[in-house]
Write a structure and sequence with these properties.
Oligomer: heterodimer
Order of helices and strands of chain A: EHHEEHHHHE
Number of helices of chain A: 6
Helix content of chain B: over 70%
Strand order of the largest sheet of chain A: 1-4
Number of helices of chain B: 7
Largest interface: A-B, 35 and 34 residues
Order of helices and strands of chain B: HHHHHHH
Shape of chain A: flat
Number of strands of chain B: 0
């Protein structure tokens, strides 16, 4: 038996690598491009739908607030760097798939609890704590998906080179 | 050899798209009414805005539900690439459905709403007592009511961002519900 990496999954990997890379760069806002206008950039408009973009809850670069809040920046960073290191992550199988799903749900719950606890004045979260919690969520997604992009399927040896795997 | 046709995934895309289209538009409209009924205090982040952001994030799970529907209705397994395609189309159609509902609301049911939101946003800026230059810059960020450019940019950015987020949730859905081998 021979095995081959599923080609369509690898194409999807490269597509996601470029897409999340662009989201990561754009999420850093206008400051990355030397523009100090805080709230009127096209980067802010891109993420306007999915992030509150509160300047007090966002990192800034060159004096300009990022286009997303610290938590969202953590998610986009982890998605992008998770994909960059996906060839390595694919070999890390320290938990089963079912546990990975539970871990993903747990990180969502952790983020929701953090928002509620902060809103209820139980404690005050910081830019860094929000970034780390967001990044944890993004990382669990990538840990869950990484092996899919480099998944090998078994072929009969006699059919090697004749089977078209898309 | 008899070729078996794969089940059509568009009904599942429509189910997922309807879910996110309704979430986006209904919560969006509710948050706009909450906004105009509140007093502007100069804050850049308000509860209605938080609801609107939450509704948009909730809109990212459409791909997950569409893939679940496709896998369970047809009792099939498929590669994650198919989940990505279903998720992306769900995001795109969801944004279109949400835009249509919002336009119907804006032009037929309550034509005053958009103007009221615009006026509220300007009053909220005035309360902040910003220097004129910053005020002008901030004003550019507030979408003008009924502007076609704003509408088209909104649809474009919505399709790109929610398309990608639903694509990701579609991949996750495919791995959870449509995986070939059982590793559990």
């Amino acid at each position: 038996m021979k095995s081959k990496i599923l080609k369509s999954n690898q194409q999807l990997y490269y597509f996601l690598l470029v897409t999340t890379g662009l989201l990561f760069v754009f999420s850093m806002g206008p400051g990355l491009f030397g523009d100090s206008k805080t709230m009127i950039s096209w980067q802010h408009k891109i993420f306007h739908l999915v992030c509150h973009q509160d300047v007090f809850r966002s990192y800034s670069i060159n004096g300009a607030s990022m286009a997303v809040c610290a938590r969202c920046f953590g998610i986009y960073s982890a998605l992008f760097f998770g994909l960059v290191f996906a060839p390595l992550l694919a070999h890390i199988r320290f938990v089963k798939r079912k546990r990975m799903v539970q871990l993903m749900v747990a990180t969502i719950a952790l983020n929701v609890a953090d928002v509620i606890a902060n809103a209820a004045d139980i404690y005050t979260n910081t830019l860094h704590s929000r970034f780390i919690l967001g990044a944890l969520f993004g990382l669990t997604i990538m840990l869950f998906l990484a092996d899919e992009f480099f998944r090998r399927i078994n072929l009969m040896e006699k059919s090697y080179g004749t089977t078209n795997i898309a | 050899m008899e070729q078996q046709t794969l089940p059509n995934y568009w009904p599942s895309v429509m189910v997922g798209a309807l879910i996110i289209g309704l979430i986006l538009s209904v919560l969006g409209i509710i948050s706009q009414y909450m906004l105009i009924s509140s007093e502007p205090v100069g804050s850049s982040f308000t509860l209605p805005q938080a609801i609107q952001t939450f509704s948009c994030l909730a809109g990212a799970i459409g791909g997950f539900f569409a893939v679940r529907h496709y896998a369970t209705e047809n009792e099939i397994t498929f590669p994650i690439g198919k989940g990505a395609v279903i998720g992306f189309f769900t995001g795109v159609v969801g944004v279109i459905i949400s835009t249509v509902i919002s336009l119907i609301w804006q032009f037929v049911i309550d034509p005053e709403l958009d103007d009221a939101v615009y006026e509220w946003a300007i009053r909220n800026l005035e309360v902040q007592n910003l220097p004129q230059q910053q005020m002008d810059m901030a004003m550019n960020f507030i979408p003008e009511p009924g502007s076609m450019t704003t509408l088209l940019w909104g649809i474009g950015f919505g399709i790109v961002v929610l398309g990608v987020l639903n694509l990701l949730s579609g991949i996750i859905g495919a791995k959870v519900f449509a995986k070939e081998e059982d590793e559990f």
